[in-house]
What does this fold into?
Amino acid sequence: MRGRERGPVSAAAADPDGSGARQEPGAGLGQGEPRPRLRGARPSLTLVCLSRALQLSVDTLQFLLFLYVQQLHKVSLRRSLLGDEWPSARTKSPSLSGKSAGGNKNWNDQEHLAFVQSHLLDMLELLLEPEQLSASSHSSCSSLVSFEAVCALSFLLEGTVSNSGSVRPLHELALRQPCHGHNGYSKVSRAFSLPKLESWLRSSLTANPLGMTVCLKAGKKLAWAQQVEGTTRRARIACSSRVVPEVSPMVIMSQVYRQTLAKSSDTLVGAHVRIHRCNESFIYLLSPLRSVTIEKCRNSTFVLGPVETSVHVQSCDNIKVIVVCHRLSLSSTTGCTFHILTPTQPLILSGNQAISFAPFHTHYPMLEDHMAQVGLATLPNYWDSPMLVCRDSGDASVFRLLPPSDFYTFVIPFEMEGDTTETPGGLPQEYQEVLSQREQKVQVWQRMVKEAELTRDQRKQFQTLVENKFYEWLVETGNRQQLDSLVPPAVSSKQAAG
It folds into this structure.
């Protein structure tokens, strides 16, 4: 705000993989740029992974906040009986389509803002030192919030001063001299007056100006190299502008139906990609990406460029994801297949059924260059070592490794410039052997046809028979739609790289 050097502070939420990364504006509940952890007198929480002899640590206060904000997704068991959440009704706000948000809180910046406003005092009290709490474990008008606690709040909040366009974490904004009178900061105690800090935060909070809602309403509409006309009425595909250079752009794809979309361009480089309610579609995003969230999609295939941080798949049915990524996590998915190359164990959260994991099995000319850009290599690769974080009734059969007999390579049908000519890192031996056996059978078949010495009419009749059988197979498997949508445009399929 002008005159008092007090600008809006964007409300954003935590990194779902718990990495302790600071959230970028516009990233909503997604992933943000990692930043050095800020430590004070409190010890950090240390986690030891015995299976790999790795020691990881996170800031204790940030971890408390991360656990607390999971309430944003909490569903009350009494809601169906009372008609609303219990014990208190939560502020409703419009969804992507302008209707009630319902359960779509991941995509709603207003829900994020409402949650922070409703629970701000609770979060501040959670971060207080024990001596600052009363006998009833609540704060008082004399309670002081330590600087370390405000640093932890930077995990959730960041903003600008006087709309300068330069995004800063909360603790840096709070230390600005003109703000001390409003947030109660004392240089002597290096602490903030809790009542003043709460009042300052409430008066400054605003919905994320670079978030998903703004992206959909005012973002740049994207053009695609491959797109079937006539079925895009409900589709929403937009990209947030790079108004703040240090903030990664956001690309949102919602309600794409029976489409084949392909893109590889600077627009996607380093972007947070949100894919929502895409059905019966084939989507190719062939650029290095920052993070990807796929939610409520069905019967679709997603071929992604290397993802620097994480791919999170939630509430999806019968989708196929092909990606090189740092982290994959799944929740509430059914019948999905993941062809992945990843240096970390895939995380299987709650509500998943019939999940299949398989080795990464494709390539495009720029793939290895894109992997280098995001710092991903072919080793280590833990595609076959998923971790059951939330075991459902002790059932370890929630996932399987795709049998080699069901394994086929995937061809990306677009021309691009580049040097990658094969799958990075190759394939596991058992899968490569199956492919070699199939190739030998094809060679035997071709030799048999050649040695049959068919007449010209017999060859034409035989070719017609094979084509008819192939067409029947395309219809039965549903692959006809994909082939029909790949009819090259008038210029060239090289547009996919534009």
Notes: The longest helix spans residues 429-451.
